[in-house]
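re: ur question from the group chat, yeah i did fold both. here u go
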Amino acid sequence: MKKKLLRVLIVEDSDDDALLLLRHLESGGYHTQHQQVISRHSLKKSLRNTNWDLIITDHNMPELDSSAVLSVIKKLNIDIPVIIVSGSIGEDLAVKAMKAGAHDYIMKDNLARLIPAIQRELREAALRQSQRNAEAAIQHLAYHDSLTGLVNRSEFEHRLGRATRQAKNGKAVNALLYLDLDQFKVVNDTCGHSAGDELLKQLSSLLYTRIRGRDTLARLGGDEFCVLLENCDLKQAKIIADDLHQIVNDFRFAWNTQIFNIGVSIGVVEINGIDMSPDEILSAADLACYAAKDKGRNCIQVYKREDIGLRQRRREMNWANRIDVALENNNFLLYQQLIVPLRGAGPSYYEYLLRLKDKKRVIPPGAFIPAAERYQRISAIDRWVIKTSFSYLNQLSRNRKDGKVFVSINLSGQSLGDNSLFDYIQSLLVKYKLPAETICFDITETATIANFKTAIEFINKIKKLGSLIALDDFGCGLSSFSYLQNMDIDFLKIDGSFIRNMNENPINRAIVESINNIGHIAGFKTIAEHVETKKVSHILKDIGIDYAQGYAFNKPRPLQPSNPALTEAVRVEKKRLRQLRT
């Protein structure tokens, strides 16, 4: 049987006794790497130079007894098993030695206990080391990203706070770089998340080798990174940003047979004592990074307070945060506006419209929808609208005896690209026991053209389900006429910009007439939006428009806020948001 290596330090002034111990260890199955010491100095030196598995010490020696050995080990803060092997130690001294840190004591005339004691203590030492390793790993994960090993967002924000305080106290000028990869989604979508993870690890390692030793590279999440540059002014920060930008552009990621080029957009902010909090500095760097993306991606943007575009971006980011709060706290509202028939084309029905409750104000969608689309919140809003609408309709259907309620609900272009949206709608129709034919989904013309293939697939599935489709804001681009022959829709909603003053603008009237004629030829019903006067409504009726919507008939008004169905929708939506965060 192969012998196990045992690195043992022997504190013993008798060479014969030391040799006897070594022979006993050899016969017990151990191959030893050993050293014999007899003084405090040699003990300290040996402990500092070698990682020993075990210490075996005599109790009584002229220069060094077992209590002195234990004292040295304690001062050096070393976790190592100590077994006292002595020819003369009383019970009281043995107990005292155990309390001081000895793990066992064995009489020299009874070495049969030595090997089992060593085996036990080595197992215990291994368990203690395993526990320390686990605790160290947990501690590391608390401050580092589990995928790349870089500093995580929490620790980075702590260091950013320290750098901000230094700048405010005039002790240093620092800088912050915000990096967002430009082609990461292509890799994820093409090759899967395993490839994306490998890309992040490779690129993280590459970037880490190029930052200065005192700087901090952190992964904030996804494909976003930050570099905190300490004792670095704006001029030097731009040089470092250029270097990192070039590194990413030169990087080629290979996965199976494919090779990808990865670009990066970088925002740069100087931390120079101006009264900005760490959150504001991080937000400013994020703003600059997004501005770099708006310039065409793969470039560098320095943050300047006076930049109008960056101020607009800051407003949008503030809206993104307010939208998150609104989703969490159910601060959205649904309004309804009547859509009336002009030519006996069918019954009136309602379009559900979104609003945001902000303290005592009700904010229209135009104020926050652009930010919701830019910062990827619009799909969550759409789902809130669908669930809340369906829940409300379910309650209405229980209370009404005059037939089905028909409504129209808006969907964004981003939601059309959500592969799970159709299943979500279908499941809610079943849950709330709603006839699919009572729901019309409005999708805008621009979103449809921008995502034409995806939009057509979604429309076809919705139509097969039994629901209806309206093409909203139609007419913004007359080239869109060519798309109609390939679309199975039910309503054309003519953009309100052609409707408002059509009684004074003959070109707008001609456009409305053309859209109406083509729509009818294609088999669609037509709806005029933003009808604000009775005079315009009469013209629309003469032209042959089927439906009209606008202040000429009624203003949007809120759904019944005390409806218990809405309360249930709120509860379910909050639960879903919590699950998404975890």
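okk and heres the other one u asked abt
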Amino acid sequence: MPLMSSVQDAGAASGGLFTLAGLPLTSWSYAFRIWFAMVIALGAAFWLQLDSPSSAAITVAILAQPRRGQAFQKAGYRVLATIVGVVASIVITALFSQTRDLFLLATAAWLALCVYVASYYDGNRAYGAVLSGYTVSLVAVIQIDAPQNVFIAGLSRGAAVTVGIAAIALVNDVFAAPDVFSGLRVRLAVAHGRVNEMVDALLRGDEPGPDRAADLLGTITGARLDIQTLPSERAGGGGQAAAARSSAVAMVGRVAIARSFSDLSRLVSENVDPLRALVWNDAVVDLEAGLDAELARPDRAPEGIAIRRFALDLADLRRLASRELANMEEGLAPERDVRLPIHRDRQTAWRTALRVFITVLASSTVLILSSWPTTSLTLSLVGVVAALSATTPNPGAFAKGALIAMPVSVAAGGITEFLILDGVDSFPLLGLAMVPTIFAACFLSLSPKAPVAGLGSLLLVFFPFILSPANPQSYNPQTYVLTGLLALLAVCALFVALYTILPTTDRDRRRWMIDEARGDLRAALDGTARLTPTQAAYLTADRIVQLSRLRVGFASAKRWRLRHMLLLSTLTIVATRAGDALNDLGMAGFPSAPIAAARTALARLDAAALHDAAAAVLGSAPLEPCVTRSRAARAVADLFFLSVTAKAQASQLRHTRSGVPA
């Protein structure tokens, strides 16, 4: 869920040898930190006499993360997004405050734009984008009848956010909240070991299956958000994050190359057992010598070059992954700096943005025509929950969780205010009265089960909103009932909108994902790929992981599509590398005729033409060792692999050849 830690982080944070009431002590420590930070934020907000002290408590709830670096990074995005949102509120109010219809239209358009931008990011970046959008709902929309107060409301919100950030930062430092780095290095080390096991299985000729490959890739790509938080956690975090990125990409590449080597070893006539032994023993020097010897033979053939080049790639990537893990551990500069692109569907992005736009406009129209009391508050809540749903991988699950969490929050707020406190005007008692709900929400949010963790995260945020602590507390049943009804109405409006306005199913996402994968392969074959081979490896891995998590189709059909996606991923990586190798040869003064023939064969994905092109490039390569010969070996290996794979998988690649989506 966007409001809390990821499930994988939660599992790490909730571990421990000692338990209390069946829960690890680390869970109790986390719940205590969040509760104590919320109490400090409320106390500071009361002392400063802020207009909305509950906003400080909500800020703590939103920034609640098991790891210190996660909270720091999210706090940074929250500050920046709040500033952007307040500025947008002032601008929209200044331009359209005299025209109610245009004001609501501009607000909905701004929120939709922010949601669209958020759809291309993940984690705290996506949250920051949607926060910029719904801040307008919390600042400008609520003051729709008093536009002169927008600036003051913006300052008040900024002050409450600052207080909440300061409170949780202080508590995390004083109570030594665990950092991201310690868990990240363990996660990457475990992933590295699992990659080695899979590579060994593939070298033995075993087929782990697409499900296992997708699960392993999910373990590697799942560390992405932790890697992003390293720079905000420690002084040398930027270099460590770069080393972690490089190691993750190397591991993803090893999985792809190992599958390629396994496929290639079954399609060539040469005995590859000696090469398997060299790869097992990490004999990089011997593999390099063997490739050089093969290149120096007068009767050299593409088949021998390809299998040796791929074996060397396997050994090189293992060594690179190990070195980068060591660089991350020791805080040394990485050997390379790579990006970790993620898959995002354009269709999903614009549908989500348009859904939010229509939802806000439709809700405002209905509320205005019905003369609903406190329309501005209802509209602001609709905008907030609609925007937050856009940051989740599964908006439908978010809406269902909100439908459960909101009534529970309303009930917990009412019990706390009218049964536990019951008119008491004492801040210490207010803090103690919040303990049961806050602790329960924290425990739920640390669950390894995603739906339960999401429910806990939402409860943690919704509860202080419903309770709305004030100094003094009003104890007004009418205000409580009205706030609860408005909150329930907002989540109900979101639920209805998700299933009636441009609904997006897993079947749609699956179709778009496969079409995007075929499009990327087509671009790599045409020489118009926008990514480097390393970036393509990570992007395609993320796409495979997302596809594996879609709940659609029978198990056998799902495995077939995963296998098809793995094939497209491998071909995209190899085709991108082949294109880069041909570009390098062209700049090195290599004969133009074989390069042109190779580009034509690539674009057509013609097996026979690719084989002839590999032979032509190899025939034009010098026999003596030089840079040009090394680059030619790279091109020959990739062209030959594409040739034999295109022939063996002709039925699966027919749509890629024609460019017609399935």
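fwiw on the second one: Residues 555-587 form the longest helix (33 residues). The CA atoms of residues 84 and 135 lie 9 Å apart. idk if thats what u expected
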